[in-house]
Design a protein that fits this description.
- The chain is built from five helices and eight strands, in the order βαββαβαβββαβα.
- A hairpin with a 2-residue loop joins strand 6 and strand 7.
- Helix 3 runs antiparallel to helix 5.
- The longest helix has 16 residues.
- The chain is globular and about 45 Å long.
- The two termini are 14 Å apart.
- InterPro entries: DUF1697.
- Pfam families: DUF1697 (PF08002).
Length: 172
């Protein structure tokens, strides 16, 4: 049985693309996933399954589409990939409130990006863009939409606290 960390992109607590986590947990259990856990209301899930990553992506997408009628980008990482992402963080010396991990659905073929992001900075390593958002993520130009447009892959961002908490949940 493999433990996966599943990230949903673009879901909300209310309004458009509403996705109640308690209901989603039950739907995923009903779909055969084991030890389903969610963390806060923003699409962070830890599951266990005997199927591979691509099947997990497909099955989670299908559960959401069948129940809620819309499609959501789903990114799935193994515990080792998650640990690698944390270990590769080049911004560990800055305030933790400035550290963000933009997880990519796959390794992009385009890796050169130019932008004047003021004092914010980023570094792409494998399937993660590390962001040092000096003024906070809400004001940076280095957001999901920017990286998706430049790299041509799906992306979703988590702060350092959430990234560490998901590893903790996945390794309990």
């Amino acid at each position: 049985m493999t433990t996966y960390i599943v990230l949903l992109r673009g879901i909300n607590v209310s309004g458009k693309n509403k996705l109640p986590m308690a209901e989603l947990r039950q739907l995923l259990k009903d779909a055969g996933f084991k030890n389903v856990q969610t963390y806060i209301q923003s699409g962070n899930i830890v599951i266990q399954s005997q199927i591979g990553k691509e099947e997990v992506v497909h099955n989670v997408c299908k559960v959401i589409k069948d129940r809620y009628g819309y499609e959501v980008p789903v990114l799935v990482k193994t515990i080792q990939e998650w640990k690698n992402a944390i270990g590769n963080n080049p911004f560990t010396t800055v305030d933790e409130k400035q550290q963000y991990f933009t997880f990519l659905s796959q390794k992009p073929s385009q890796v050169t990006i130019e932008i004047d992001a003021k004092e914010d900075e980023f570094k792409l390593i494998d399937e993660v863009v590390y962001v040092n958002a000096v003024g906070g993520y809400g004001t940076t130009k280095l957001n999901n939409n920017f990286f998706e447009n430049k790299l041509k892959v799906n992306a979703t961002t988590r702060n350092l606290k959430t990234t560490l908490k998901l590893l903790e949940l996945a390794t309990k």
